[in-house]
Design a protein that fits this description.
Radius of gyration: 17 Å
Helix content: over 70%
Number of helices: 8
Strand content: under 5%
Largest sheet: none
Shape: globular
Amino acid sequence: MALHTWLLYLVAVIGLSLTPGPNGLLTLTHGALYGHRHTQWTIVGGVSGFVLLMALSMFGIGVLLQTSAHALSILKWVGGAYLIWLGVQIWRAPPLHLTASARSTPPPGPALLRQGLLSAVSNPKVILFYGAFLPQFLDPARSLWSQFAIMALTFAATEGLTEYLLARLAHRVRPWLERAGKGFNRCCGGLFGLLGAALPLTR
């Protein structure tokens, strides 16, 4: 993967990690209830689920690229349109509202890991998102699996760090998200709209 492509991917992944979603909400909730140390199990489960879905998506993309020389261009345009649509949905989404709760006794670590993993893999929209998102950064002239390794490691590190910070700052972040969540959603939605419009034009 070329350096400039990786830097674009890194910026996009940071925006994706900051966007409110089921796993971010779960991490925020577990951080407030059980503390950031126990919530690391939830984070590992969620990141593992996302990487698994990335692998499934990349496998499907690889099969498609073997059948059509123009498949990547088509995926880029269809994916760009999907990212714009997703940006509109995030823009229009209401701010998060979380109920403050006293810290309770945490479940066993493997149970938290399972919750994070199931939260990631049980959402069918995630694999659809990866099918739209990943082709924007692929170079068909390079090894698909080496690009997947770079993308997966970058995503796992970025998502894991973001969720850990959410868990560690849960009590401080929660009131801010409730107070300024609408503007935050619009920033994230605008980012996805820009990505969807600009990335299919890049080569």
